[in-house]
Every structure is written in C-alpha cells, then in structure tokens.
Amino acid sequence: MTYPQAPADVLKFYRDLHAHPELSGNEHRTQAAVHSALATTASQIRSCGGTGLEAVLRNGPGPVVGFRADMDALPLQENTGLPYASTNDGVMHACGHDVHTASLVGAMRWLDSHREAWSGTLVGIFQPAEETGAGALAMLDDGLFDTTGRPDVILGQHVTSAPLGKLLIKPGWFLAGQRAWRVSVTGTGGHASRPHLANEALLTAVAMVNRLQTVTSREIDPFRMAVLTVATFHAGTKENVIPAEAVFTVSARAYEPEVAAKLEAALLRILHGEAAAGGVEVDIREISHLPAVYNDPAENARAATALHEVFGEQPETPDPLPASDDFSRYAERLKVPSVIWNFGVHDPALPQNAVARNHDARFAPHPTGAVSVGLAGAIAVLTARLQDRDLDTENPN
C-alpha cells in the first residue's frame, strides 16, 4: 500500500492537538486552533454547536458534501511515552479525534489550493462532544447547513487499532444504535435483623437484573444482533442496614430499529413487573440515545472505489460493529445519505497483542502514517464525490 505523507505543517498541527486535548464541550483551544489553521483558505468559518466549527469551502456548481471530524478527548491519564504526549493532566486523545481533525484540516487546505480537482461545496464539520453523544445535535440545532442548504451526503472516517492503512467500509448497518437508562428502585429500609419490617429495594433490583439477562436469549432472534448490559449497581452503606434504594444502569444495543424497540419494550415490562411483584417503586430515566449508523449502499460504493484507487488495495468489508457514534444524527435529522469508514493507524510491525486499542491510555497512532492515511483517504473520497455533478442537480452553489 502506498500513499503520500502528510505535509509537515499538518503533522505539526496534529502533534499540537494531541498535546493539548480537551474534554467534550470544552474544546475551546481546539476550536481556535482549527480556525487559525483554516484562516489561509477561502473557507467561511463560524462557531457552531458551542465549541464546534462549520467551515464552508465553495468552488462553483456541484453537490454539497459535509465531512465530519470529531474533536473531543477522553478523561484518561496518557501512558504512551510520546514526545508530544498530553500536557493536560487526566485528559488524552485516546480515540483518534486529533487524527480526524488534522486530516480534515489538511484536506480542506489541499482542496482550497487544487480547485481544478473538484466542484461544489464542502462543509467541514468540526464537531465537539462526540464522546457524550451531544455534539452532532448541538451543531444541527445551531444551524449547521443553513447557509448551504441540505447536503447531498455526509461523510466521515474513524481510526481503529488495525494495522496502518487497513481500510474497513461496508454498506448497510455499520455501527450499533445505543440507549441507556438509570433505574432507581425505592422501598423502605430497616435493620438487617428485621427484614420482615422492611420492603427491600435491593432484592427487587437484583431480580430485575437477573430477569433482564434473559431478554436477548429468549425474546430476540439469535440471527439479529442485540446486547443488553447492566454495567453499574449501587445499594447500601453498611452491613447491618437494609437499604431503601438501589440504583443501576442498563444499556441496550442493536442495529435494526425494530430490534431496539423490542429490547426497550422488554426492559420496561420487566422493570415495572418486578416492581409490582416486589411492592416497590421504580423510576426509569433515559440517559443516552444514539441511532445506529447506516452506510448508504450507493455512497458506500463510491467511497470504497475512491479509497481503492488511491491506496491500491480493496477495502475490507467487516462485520457491523457494536460501538456507537453520534455521526448517525446527521442522516437522521437531515434525511440524507451518509457513509463512514474506519482506517488502521498502528505500526504493522508491532505484534497485535502489543497494540493498544481505542480508549486505552496507551493508544498511540503511528506518528506520521496515521494522519497521512486519514488525509489521503479524505482527499480521495471528497474529490471523487465532488466531481459527481450529474448526480446532484438541486445545489447550484
């Protein structure tokens, strides 16, 4: 596999982003850095969604194409030993959002100086708060695409812990939808020596958790992906005190909306049923919700062809992934096709058991290759899509 190395100024920009990570909703320095990096282009740039940026680059008639790059970091203490490691204590770019951002900045610079290679309008979506699932909606609610009109397609890419340059893209369901709830069970407490005088929330909460484990095995078609997980459980303060409350969180993941609906219906039925059986109160509050990511087949084919042409290898078609991403919000809200792909960023010389995966404090993308692959992929797909004039007649920008 061959690809051009990213320019030195783009690599320098990447290292600066990596050294100065910011948590979701607090990407103030990152926002300013991106704005400064694009100041030499003809992009029309505005703050959007709080700490995000919308950068519009126009070049005559043609399609309107959005390209998303998330910018936020994670609450981790970096343990990579890199010379440009995080200088912000307890905050780290452990999911490659610095790679995504630098790649899109580099692509917009390249497109600005190679206008003969494309025609249309590119909207750079520099998104905050992907890790909290709030950033895409914040930008959409703040008028993203108001000045360009509805886009013809939304594109995106994401790093993975695969060997450097390995490309993963597939039509149809690509990432799972996710919903999570906080469940509070309330009864009456008492002394541990007199449980008959209490109405134990803990016992009912345990019954709820146990019964929830039967949903995917007994109510969902085994050939359709579904995951239901209780990840936290809190009750009690002392060994001789029966707690009056138990609290746990549960998440559900699925690709297909009808499967997600079955999971939710089963969860609510079980929680209310067990509460009634135990004579306790239950309060169920949704704490997060992300739709599944669906890659439009036609747009997926165009992107895969462009990636094949620039890298010389056919991208792999992986199984759908159980992770989630608020990239799905753009297609959901705007009613337009979208496609996102993954690309490997780790040194292929490393044994696989030595490679740290996303969200690991040791996650260290290749220092030059990661951004180079991201930049080459972004340019390839964007120039291919921004030449499809015959496909888009509604946006004479």
Automatic annotation (TrEMBL):
Keyword terms, alphabetized: Manganese, Metal-binding
Co-factor: note: The Mn(2+) ion enhances activity.
Positions bound to Mn(2+): C95, H97, E131, H158, H359
Location of the Peptidase M20 dimerisation domain: 177-274
Family annotation (SUPFAM superfamilies): Bacterial exopeptidase dimerisation domain, Zn-dependent exopeptidases
Signal peptide limits: none
Names of the cofactor(s): Mn(2+)
Protein name: Amidohydrolase
